[in-house]
Design goal:
Elements lengths: L1 H19 L14 E3 L13 H6 L6 H6 L23 E2 L3 E5 L2 E9 L7 E8 L5 E7 L2 E7 L10 H14 L6
């Protein structure tokens, strides 16, 4: 009798866990944002042909440090939360690609710390016209999200779902990072 009761309870708990895992994603989450990698075209190269050229381009060279704020420089300089500084995450650049997320097109720029690519990497999305800039910086197990907009426009409030949707799209066609 005791064994029958135990088996019945275990089945009920298993059934509860099985149904509890089928919760639909929240609206606006990265799982619900449609995203795809677009065929290569000249828009991906509008700010440069390499990640280094993009970082140093006249249109973006002031905006990108503004995107990362205090995290742009290493913490050894008394600022930010990212020990190496976000600038180090662009040491090794990946290919420049175009992604479309919820109908908006972005230049996708990926990079990583040269000796730690699997754990220290960055994805930056550049909106048409150079604004907004959105980024996800993975510093070990800790992802950091950033948003920047110029021209008096507010950056999107759903930065992490947008960047994560872009990352998912890049991963769907291969390795997203260098």
């Amino acid at each position: 009798m005791r064994r029958l009761l135990l088996n019945g309870c275990l089945c009920a708990v298993a059934g509860l866990f099985a149904t509890a895992c089928t919760i639909p994603p929240a609206p606006g989450s990265s799982a619900t944002l449609p995203a795809q990698v677009l065929p290569a075209d000249a828009r991906a190269l509008v700010y440069g042909r390499t990640v280094s050229e993009v970082i140093q381009s006249q249109e973006l060279r002031d905006k990108i440090p503004g995107l990362f704020g205090a995290d742009w420089m290493p913490t050894s300089q008394g600022r930010g939360q990212v020990a190496l500084g976000a600038a180090a995450f662009f040491e090794k650049g990946g290919p420049l690609r175009m992604v479309s997320i919820s109908g908006k097109d972005y230049v996708a720029v990926t990079g990583c710390v040269a000796n730690a690519c699997p754990t220290r990497r960055v994805l930056m999305l550049i909106g048409e016209g150079g604004s907004p800039l959105l980024a996800r910086l993975d510093d070990g197990a800790i992802p950091h999200y950033y948003a920047y907009s110029s021209g008096g426009a507010a950056p999107p409030t759903n930065t992490s779902p947008i960047v994560d949707a872009g990352l998912r799209a890049l991963q769907s066609v291969g390795d997203a990072y260098p």
